[in-house]
Every structure is written in C-alpha cells, then in structure tokens.
Amino acid sequence: MIILKLGGSVITRKEAENPTLNHENLERIAREISQSNYQKLIVVHGAGSFGHPFALKYGIGDEIGNNQDLENKMMGFSITQQAVKELNSRVCQCLRKYNILSVSIQPSSFILTKNKRIISANLNLIRKYLDLGFVPVLYGDVVLDSEDAIKMAVLSGDQIVKYLAENLKPKRVILGTDVDGIFNKDPKKYADAQLLDVVSSLDHMENGDTDTADVTGGMGGKLRELLELADIGVESEIINVNHSNIIKKALNGENIMGTLIKKKIRR
Amino acid sequence: MIILKLGGSVITRKEAENPTLNHENLERIAREISQSNYQKLIVVHGAGSFGHPFALKYGIGDEIGNNQDLENKMMGFSITQQAVKELNSRVCQCLRKYNILSVSIQPSSFILTKNKRIISANLNLIRKYLDLGFVPVLYGDVVLDSEDAIKMAVLSGDQIVKYLAENLKPKRVILGTDVDGIFNKDPKKYADAQLLDVVSSLDHMENGDTDTADVTGGMGGKLRELLELADIGVESEIINVNHSNIIKKALNGENIMGTLIKKKIRR
User: B21-27: which pairs have CB atoms within 8 A and are 24 or more residues apart?
Assistant: First the structure.
C-alpha cells in the first residue's frame, strides 16, 4: 500500500483569493498515477485555495467567543466543508477520467479531533475499499473537535496522512509538494540552501525556518508529522510534483530527487 | 429531534434522463424549514435523477459476474457516488442560503451494508453535530456491502431514515413526498382510491400495489420500513411537500393532510 499526498499548493492555485483549481497539474498527476504500477493506493489531498481562505476568514479552530461568534463559525464550517468537498469532487473526477477507480471519503463524516488532533476515526471502510481495488481519496477538511473551547477544527491533509500511516502501516508515504524536498534553510531566502537527501531530525534545519504561515502548518509542521511517523517505522518521501514523471517514478519505486524522512539509526 | 426526509422525486426532476434539480421545490422547502420552529433537525434526501439512472445503468447491488463486470460496477459506483454528492452539495447550499447550518454527511464514508441492509454505522458524530446546532444532511448513496456476491449496494434515503430513527429515537419522522400520503390503492390507476389518515399494517392496502418500480423501493418499500419503525414506537408521517407551507406546518406540529404510520393498538 502507498499513501500519496497531493499538496493543496500543487492541485490548486494557492495564492488565489477564490477557490481555483490547477487543472494542468491535476491532469498530469492523474495521468502519471494511471501510468504507474501500484497495488493499493490511497490519495490524500490538501485544501489549498478551496479551504484556507474560508477557514481563516471564519477562524475555524480558534477559541469561540459568544453565541454570535459560535454561529458565525458554524456557518463558516458549513461553507468550508462544501468548498473542500467541491475540490475533492474535481480530484475524484479527474482521476476517474484516467480510469482510476476513485472513491471519495469525507473526513468530516467520520473523524473527530480533540485539540485539533484526531482521536477517533474508523478505518475499516477504507481498508475494504482498498481490498476491493478502489482508490480512496481523502482530503483536508473541517471536523468537529471535542474540545469545548473550539468545538471545530481544521484537519490538514498532512495529519490525515499521518493517522492513516500510523494505523494502516503503508509500505511507502509519498508527499507531492511544490518544493524539491527539505532544505537546510529556506531556499527562497538563502541562495546557499542545500537540499537534504535524508532527514532524521529537526536538527538538520538551520535556524527557525520550520515555521511558515499556513493554516495547517507549513513545511515545519509537515516535517514534524513525518519525523513522528519515521519514529514508528514508516518512511516518507517529499517530492516536487512539478517535475514531470516524478509521481510515476515515485509510485514505481524508482530513484528520484527529493528528501527521505527516516529514523535515525542509533548506535 | 425531528428527521425530515425529502424524496428524490421532490427535489429533483425524477423523470429526467440526466441529473436535474427541482430548484423551485428545493428553494421553497429550504425557506419553509427556516421559517419553522425545530430544536434538532436531521435532513435525509433521496437521490432522484442524480442517482437512480447511474445505479440502474451499472447494476450496483446486482450480483457480480466476472472481473470485467466488477470493474465496470466499481466505475459505476464512483460515478454514482459523485453524482449524489453533487446533489447533496446543492441541497446543503440551498439550506445555507436560508441560514440553516447544514452539514453534509456522506453515507459511503461511514456506512456498511450486508445484503443491502445497514450493519454498521457510527452515529456519534451525527449526535455531536446535532448537539452543537448543526443540521446534518444525509442522502441516498452507494455503499460497500459485505456480501461477497454483490460487494456494493444502493442505500436508499428511506433506509437511512429508518436506521437513524431506530438508533436516535427522534420525536417525529416526516417524509416529504410528491403524494398526499398512503392510499388504499394506486390513486393514479383508481379514481376511487382513498387517502388513509392512519396506516398500521399492509392490510390497509388493497391488492398488490405495494410494489412499484424504483431502485430503492417505491411506496411499498417505504411503507414497510415505516411499519417496522412504528413497531418499535417511532411514528412517522407521509406528506405531500408540493403543498406550500406543509413542511413548515409539519415541523411545527400542526395538523396537516397526510398519512400517519403508527403501531396498531392490540387489545
């Protein structure tokens, strides 16, 4: 089994003010998946411009003030849920166009968080979909949170990937992003930033570049999730899906540019 | 708590070859719900022309032949799932337009059937959505079936209503249809057909008019589900939502035209 994450910045125009699909990327990715050899595949995609603007606007996951604020956030929840569902429909549709038997799985229908971390999610159906040969497609969504102060939370695709990986123990986790991998410092700021082939701890990063502005955590948040995964024995690869054929090669297990997140071998 | 079912023939143009919304009905229904007094409300809607044509075309729920047939049905599952999800989005959107805090709940994400009957569905999230003040909106969908011979099934909105009612014990179940209620015989065939105010058993129906062609069961199938509900103490009302203000009155508990399905009092 392989879990393939498609970043919101890859399949949507993340800088757009309104939900905007990145058609070209999505088409190319779907085609590459269809051309690759995989036994069992789960796709998890981010929300990008279909989710983040709404989640930010309504402050989903922020502490709730008075009743008016609660109602406003609930309306925001409803709006965000619909927008990311719309994105998911487009992804499933595009996969199907390339003969991939996509099946949509809505996180807000079966996942509960507490303080923004998943505490309950029955994965039996996902296992059954996989066994039958479907490709379950999950996505960053808004979900109920059992912490009374916030009541609702933004659930990132990355956290879903981690939860699935912890529980389903996939052979590989591939994270398709718009960067070549993890650098020792921000390559947009530092010309001498170096791509790291392997990362086993946050110590590989210079200074504090693990925090970037992103509702669901930027590369720093992603890396932390992946290091925790590595700790329990699930390795993951960060790749730049803007390079053509890289998803196909990654799914086929070929050697590609990117960063492997794996456990440090203790001597 | 009230469970309100909106028939596929009410919110879609059921006779249409392609998925076609009944905008007028949907708008009116949403407005009436927003004008009524309810504490907790669950909406369940049928699939109508968004689901039945696909489910029929691909034979979802029919016995599976060879691998080619399985793959074909799986593709049909994927297509049907997307179409009914699209209808659900339209319903949620319209409810939200009238300030109803709709939240979409996708049956195929958490419900499993065996031989076309629900055997597993965790309702905790639905309870939580209700407690917070959301209006969960479920719908007729395609789902996985644990019976190996069929593997997939069409899950009707009516069966969902019944399962929810059995487990959540609502105060009332209201079934919005395009007929005035249950008649003692088919009113489209017999001019002397009489509307029944109360039905407690299938004996109230003359001849075999309980079977009509409908992928998810016509009035006969509906009535059987409701009689089983009545048996465990949950009464339901069948109303014709084409009459304006009837949903508002029904939600408010006013006296309206329709058929009440209730348990026979044994002496």
Answer: B21/B87, B21/B90, B25/B241, B25/B242, B26/B90, B26/B91, B26/B94, B27/B94
